[in-house]
Amino acid sequence: MPIPNDSNQAALNGLTVLDLAGPLGNYCGKLFADMGADVILIEPLAGAPTRRTGPYVAGRQGQPDASLTFQYQNTSKRSIALDLDSAAGQAVFRKLAGMSHLVLESEQPGIMRGRGIDHKSLAREHANLVMASITAFGQDGPCAHWQATDLTAMAMGGMLYLAGYPDTAPMVACGEQAVGAANLFAAVASMAALHDAENGGGGQHIDVSMQECVVLGMENAVQFYDLEGTVRKRNAGTQRLAGTGAFACADGYVYMMAGGIGSNRFWSVTTEWLIGEGVPGADQFRENRWTDQAFLATDEAKSIFGRVFTPYVRTQTKAQLEEMGRQHRIPIAPICDASDIAGNVQREYRNYFVDVTSVDGTRLRMPGAPYLLSATPWRLYRRAPGLGEHSREVLSRAGISAAEQEQLFADGVVQ
């Protein structure tokens, strides 16, 4: 089944994907769709859950097609609204699977098997089909059937314990990072499985656990415990070493690393920079003790550095400090808010943000791809679809006659 766009240069041209519209798979499907695969969004008759997920366009909560989450995660896809709990809907799904390469689903373990459309059932007729099942805890084990949100996975995966301030309860990272990680790992695993199937290995079932994706992203916290018996703690808002951390400036915050990795080099150039700027008390940083990592980690060193550096840095803007960091080869980076990101000249130069008009005519600006392929470029082929917008088109491509389609609509199997 050819993809409905006019480009033969797309990296995934010719690949057909069925995306069952769950939050744990929608972004994974987008990654395939924006690289040229024909991704068919199979929504329940009431619509994908993400259609009701905030934030909303101009605050229009509850209105059709107003979810910014849905609008972003479902670009370049086509939508069919299909009742997978009916025998007729399951028959339609099997036909669609027969002309597809990959199925993305995030139902609770056992639901697809109960419908007779799990990988084992479908593989009897379609040996090369790859199915990725993305769930909170995986397909088996004592937690497999537990319900979970992004917050649950962040907590049970350990990441939540590391996030926040030492004197407060843990804080969850913004943007549903656990859900994002599950989608990304599912995409990578799916591409590997598709490559294997294309090279004669046959299809396979991919079991992705969102909780395990979170554990994998915990940097070296697990290794610290395994090797040293040390449980890493939250340290947001604190300086690990004097001269290293987030500092308030005139219009926000910057991150600076004067001590730490390569501290001897960074510390000396930072010292000479501050002395050159006439910062009172900076000359003491020439003393030998300031190149000793053990001293830099003490409260005394942090307090002294703060008294010297804070009055100066509060008089400078993020842009000024970033520029001075480049001039003196000191790691100083602005801590950007959303307006900084949207107005960044580097992203503007590379045309990172793309504009799309939603189904209701609203102009939306959204992130593009963080990679540029010279021969098979990324492209946003179309806006996110309306519910069931392509139902008849998809049914026709599946070989279902006009009369059969009318019956499916009349019976409420398709919308």
Describe the overall structure:
The chain has 415 residues and is α/β, with parallel strands linked by helices. The chain has 18 helices and eleven strands. The strands form three sheets. Strands 3-2-1-4-5-6 form a six-stranded parallel sheet, sandwiched between helices. It is elongated.
In whole angstroms, the N-to-C terminal distance is 22 Å
Structural class call reads alpha/beta
Query: What is the helix fraction of residues, given as a range?
Result: 25-40%
Mean pLDDT: 93
Q: What are the low-pLDDT stretches, counting only 5+ consecutive residues below 50?
A: 1-6
Radius of gyration: 26 Å
Number of distinct helices = 18
Strand content: 5-15%
Number of E-type strands:
11
What is the 3D form? elongated
Order of helices and strands: EHEHEHEHHEHHHEHHEEHHHHEHHEEHH
Side by side, the strands of the main sheet go: 3-2-1-4-5-6
Describe the largest sheet.
6 strands, parallel
